[in-house]
Design goal:
five-stranded parallel sheet, Rossmann fold, alpha/beta, 12 strands, 2 domains, Arc Repressor Mutant, subunit A
């Protein structure tokens, strides 16, 4: 299996060296940048398998790096794990709203970091060839191409939003609790915040426009896809 490329965007050089050492020991290839602008440039030119992103960066802060990556078709599918000393729910939710895949607060164990990197990569690399194309009243979800269309309009979703839509649309009428969606969409070893699923659903609904009606809130339980 080819090695996976990990991009570290972090201005603490000692921490970069520590992360690099531990990831390379586990078989990953590592590249790094010490500021946001260089990190964004590397993400666009090298297209790594995953980005580890600090929030407090010189030249361009981490949230802006994330925002620009998610707006760029060249980088919007690259998984992002935020590394930050900011541990409030507001900071974590801000990252989730931009479509990051995980959020790890500093200080952290190198073993935990490596485990979370592997978990995010597993989720992003699930086989899609056997998953069926879904077409519901003009809403098309194409897993093999990782594309969503509303009529003939292509809609740009984050990886998590896409997985959430596909997961619900494949099981119309079935009600899922937030915990079930956390496990089924994000994985059992994902970072858990009370509002995680709600944030992703709200963002997905906004992008779906009139088709948002298909994602139904079941009060006191969770969500379902309208059958």
């Amino acid at each position: 299996m080819p090695k996976k490329d990990i991009l570290i965007i972090e201005d603490e050089k000692d921490l970069v060296e520590l992360i690099q050492y531990n990831l390379e020991k586990e078989g990953f290839r590592v590249m790094y940048a010490y500021d946001g602008e260089d990190g964004l440039r590397l993400a666009r030119s090298k297209h790594p398998s995953l980005v580890l992103l600090d929030l407090m960066l010189p030249r361009l802060d981490g949230l802006e790096v994330c925002r620009r990556m998610k707006q760029d078709p060249k980088t919007d599918g690259i998984p992002i794990i935020i590394l930050s000393v900011k541990d409030s729910e507001a900071d974590i939710v801000a990252g989730l709203e931009l479509g990051v895949d995980d959020y790890i607060t500093k200080p952290f164990s190198p073993r935990i970091l490596t485990s979370r990197v592997r978990a995010v990569l597993r989720r992003s690399e699930r086989e899609t060839s056997s998953r069926k194309r879904i077409n519901i009243d003009g809403l098309v979800v194409d897993p093999s191409r990782h594309e969503v269309f509303l009529g003939d309009k292509n809609v740009a979703l984050t990886m998590t939003e896409f997985r959430l839509l596909e997961y619900l649309a494949m099981r119309p009428g079935r009600v899922f609790t937030r915990n079930q969606l956390m496990s089924g969409v994000l994985g059992e070893d994902s970072m858990v915040v009370d509002r995680t699923i709600d944030v992703h659903v709200a963002s997905l609904r906004k992008k779906l426009g009139e088709y948002a009606k298909y994602i139904v809130t079941v009060r006191g339980l969770g969500y379902k896809f309208k059958d």
